[in-house]
Amino acid sequence: MADGGPLREIRAQLKTRMDKAVEDFRKAMAATRTGRASVHMMDSVSVDYYGSQMPLNQIATVHAPEPQMITVQPYDTSQMAVIEKAIRSAELGLNPMNDGKLIRVPVPPLTSERRQEMVKHLHKVLEEHRTAVRNIRRDGNDAIKKALKDKKITEDDEKRSLEEIQKLTDDEIKKMEEMSKGKEKEVLELK
User: Fold this and answer.
1) pTM for the model
2) Window from 107-111, 120-124, 159-163, 172-176 with minimum mean pLDDT
3) Residue 39 φ then ψ, to 5°
């Protein structure tokens, strides 16, 4: 974009917002289950901790000591049953076992049907994040058109800026698609 102040500011805002969308997508993918145990599988679990919803990793230590096992060690052992119930109701397909000090969560191998469901879920999450990036692009395009209308920039600046925003959008979407392909391969891979 041209060195004009409003254009540089618009581009910086768009880049920041798009980077946040890509980072959010990366986190969503980390939480997606593959055939191996991962502490990120528990990121979506929230526990009713003394009347307020808390993320599991804030009230317990979560480890993946083995490829097929996750352990959860609560800081407050009186909350074991509540944590166990939260893991069961998180729709992760996991069945935790409580021994009084530690909650063991065996991670069963994925069936081929479940793997296909995971891939569909990945595609849905990817499309949601693509849409978010496109919405950010639309906001940027609107801001540039408004700057042209307010005579803060020239038509050449507008054309160049719109092209740069499109290139930025394409780059961010391509990053997410590549991450998705890698994760899809990981999910479909039989261990």
Assistant:
1) 0.70
2) 107-111
3) -65, -25
